[in-house]
C-alpha cells in the first residue's frame, strides 16, 4: 500500500491522482494492503504469496497483458525484484494456466549511464535486441512527468533528477517472459 514512512493513505491518493492524469479510472486501480507484503526497499516478499495474489487479480480482471520489472527491478528495489520473481515463478510453474492467453513483458533494467541519458538512449535501444520497444512522443513524456509529479510524498531530490534525465520517460525496452 506504499506505507513506508507511514504514508500509505497519502500514497494511495497520489496513485489515484497519477492514474487519473494517465486516463486510468480509479475503479481500475487496485491497491493490495497485505501485512506480509510491507512497502520496504529492504524486504523481499514471499514469492508464493505474491504469485497467488497476482494470479487472482489477473483472473478476476481478465487481464491479457502483464508488464512488470525484470530481475534488476530497474532500481534494485527489493519489492520490485520480488514482483518479478513472483511473476516469473507463476509463468514457469503449474500455477500459470492462462486460458485467456495472458502474456508477460518485463521492463529492461539498464546501467546507470543509459538510465540517465534521456532521449539519447533511443538510438542505443533501437540497436539492441528486445521484444518490444516503446518510444514516447513529447506529449506522452510530458503526461508521464505530470503523472509522476502527483506523487508529492516521493519527489525527493533524486527523483527530480529522474524527471529531467531518465530514459524511462522517453524509451522503454521490454522482453517477453
UniProtKB/TrEMBL annotation:
EC number: 3.5.1.89
UniProt xrefs under Pfam families: PIG-L
Enzyme class: hydrolase
Stated family: Belongs to the PIGL family.
GO biological process: GPI anchor biosynthetic process
Protein name: N-acetylglucosaminylphosphatidylinositol deacetylase
Alphabetical list of InterPro entries matching this protein: GlcNAc_PI_deacetylase-related, LmbE-like_dom_sf
GO MF terms held by the record: N-acetylglucosaminylphosphatidylinositol deacetylase activity
Cellular component GO terms, alphabetical: endoplasmic reticulum; membrane
